[in-house]
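Need tokens for this chain, all 184 residues.
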Amino acid sequence: MAPGLSQALGESDAVAHVQVTINEVSSLVDSAGDSASKAVRLREIMERRAAMPQIARFAAGGAWRVMTEDQRTRFVAAFIKFVSGVYASRFQDYASVGNSTESFKMGRVIDAGSKGILVKTKILRTGEAPVDVEWLVTDQPGQVLIADIVIEGVSLLVTQREEIGGMLEARRGDVEKLITDLST
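Here are the structure tokens for all 184 residues:
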């Protein structure tokens, strides 16, 4: 997704970025509040810590090429709102059933070439199998950001592209309707 990674991104930068992101999200999950309030806070984290415009563009797939600049801008904003709402709701459901994350264990760090640096982690939970989480970190947009998260082999990028593609197909390719529906 991110061609031409600059030489400035080092393994320690990528690991530090992932660690801070984990800390922020863990704090959010453990905090008081409903999923709507957490969605707003998660959106702020995502906008600071992840390459959301690039993720949104990838998720739009071929529809991106036919969007006007105005539609692209509105799509990115709607996409970020949609994704943060979905994940905040999932976090809220997770927290409400008493599943607490005990810790994250940092694992291997792999140079993924032009894509960035892959930081492998495990979520360690009491009484449950560890969950493998891989974080693809890039500095392609000019700052260190997360370009993808892969949980148990499932990529956020690919999942969102499939979901947005299905939503667009259900709306018979109507980008305006998709943007409106993502915004609500």
